[in-house]
Amino acid sequence: MTRLALGLDVGGSHVTAGLVDVDARRVVRAARRDVPHTAPLETLLRAWADTARDAAGDHAPHPLHLGLAMPGPFDAGSGTSHMTHKFAALRGVPLRPHLRRVLSPDFPADLPILFGNDADLFALGEWWASPYPPERLIGVTLGTGLGSGFILRGAAQQSGPGVPPGGELWNVPTASGTLENLLCGAAVTRLGQTLTGRQGSAADWANAARLGHPAALDVWAEYGARASALLAPVTAAFGADELVLGGNVTQAFTLFSPTLSLGPCRVRPSTHLEYAPLLGAAALPPAGIEEGQNR
C-alpha cells in the first residue's frame, strides 16, 4: 500500500500543496492557489485547506501527516507565527486547531499537523529525495532575500559546530555587508551597476549573458567569485559535503558556476525546485518537530 503525506509551502503571495509518495520520495500531484499574506486569517486558512484538497484529488487519502513549510520566525512546536513583517493575521494564533477545522470533514480529525521553516524544508527535501543523500548538506535560497538550512543526517540544525544562530545565514556580517545584501537578487543589480555603470535586474543580466554580451558575462563571473569567497567559509565550518542552491538567482547557475568553487564541498542547483519544500514537509518526523528539531 502506497504511503502518502501532504506538504504545503506557504509563500507571501501563494500557497503550493503536494501529495508525496513517501516511499518513492516524489510529488505525485501538486496544486497552487494565489492568496496574499495580507489576507484575513480565515481567507488564508481556507486557501491552504482547499489547496491541500486539490493536491489530494477527488478521493482524499488518509495521509501520514500534513506538513507545512512556513516562513519565520515561527514556533513549530506550538504552530504559532511570530512574524511581524508579513502574515499579520497569523501572529500569535496557534494554527493546528484552526487547520483541523477547515480541513474537516475531508481529512481525519487526528491527522498529525507538523510545521517547519521553509528554508530548512527546502534543504531537507533536497537531502531526503537525493539518491545519495550526503551526511551534511546546506541549502541556500537566493532570491529577494537569502534563506538557509543546515542538514545533518536528515535533521535540520539550528545550533552546533559550524551552524550560525538559528541556522540563519542571511544576517551573517562581512566587511562589505551581510550575506543577504551581497548575494540576493538585488545584489546582482548593484554588482552590474558597479562593474558597467548600467542598470539591470538579475534576470536582465542573465538574459544578456546568455546572448554572449561580455559585460554581462563579467557580472556573473564576478558574482560566482563573490559567492565562493562568502560561502566557502560557511561550508568549511559545517564540514558540508554538498551545497544546494535554490531561488530565482539560481536560474543563472550555469553562468556563475564556472567561478564558484567551494573546495571539497560539491555545489549544485536544486533538483526539485518549488517541490523541494513539499518533499521536506513530507519528510518531517513527528517527534522531531515536537522536540524542536526545526525552527
TrEMBL record:
Q: Pfam families, from UniProt? A: ROK
UniProt key word DNA-binding: no
Q: Which organism is it from?
A: Deinococcus soli (ex Cha et al. 2016)
What's the protein here called?
Answer: Glucokinase
What InterPro entries does the entry give?
Answer: ATPase_NBD, ROK
Task: Kindly list the GO molecular function terms attached to this UniProt entry.
Answer: glucokinase activity
Keyword annotations: Transferase
| N-terminal signal peptide | none
EC number(s) reported in the record: 2.7.1.2
